Fold this sequence. Notes:
globular, Oxidized Rhodanese, domain 1, 5-stranded parallel β-sheet, 11 helices, 29% helix, alpha/beta
Amino acid sequence: MNNAAVPGTQMEPLVSAAWLAGHLRDPDLRVFDATVQVSRMLFLPMVRSGRRDWRRGHIPGSAFADLFALGDPHASRHSFTLPSAEYFAAAVGKLGIGSEHRVILYDRRENMWACRLWWMLRYFGHDRAAVLDGGWAAWRAAGQSICRLECAYRPATFVAHPRPQLAVSKREVLDLIGNPRVCLVNALGRRQHRGEVNEYGRRGHIPGSRNVTAWEVLDRETGCYRPLPELREKLGGVLEAERVVTYCGAGAAAASLANVVVRLGHPSVAIYEGGLYEWCRDRSLPLEVGG
């Protein structure tokens, strides 16, 4: 894959550590750690900002992007729901992201939090953003230098151009169940999909959805994404649908899978933002077990 970006054009959705090392000093480049740390308590995942880890060491020049501060301020802390265009533009502009900037995002987990912010930028019309393949671990494995100084960019002007077709609501998902032209894909783990564990208050998955986990699209040793031919084979019939809608718990693992589907060339990919965190709280909505 050619990951080079040309000013004024969109970027490839994924870049390597080697690419980033070679472009780190480009004046139009903005690099952010978007990590969210997750632990479990009873049924719900407990989440916290990864800022503390960023302060201990980060890619030189990179700033921290707090996903809690970029989501809808009126929504649950667990959801990371898209905010209004005005709110998002002001928030990312404060971080130093302008419409003219190329943005590289990374995290310290499984690429999913970086992908979440990549998708948010994409939703609001910014195609000059990419995810660092393998994130922090890939950067360290490549022997690249690290920085422990507080880093930040000057505020910039971001102009949002929302693309509502890239996100679907709970009601829209309900209407899509059974539609042969749409493939719903659960990016969560297999045991959760089959209903063997209860992570969101109820067991199972949205009826008719397939299961391609956000972990099986990664190489277990490196944390980088598998080669595109392997990914194409793994997704199989998913790519044959006219529209693909991914979901997970609250939109992060779903964004990682969406990144893969986009890179495989599918023209219509959306995310169900509310995910099972929202779906399972509404006991009038159906769930399936098994599969």
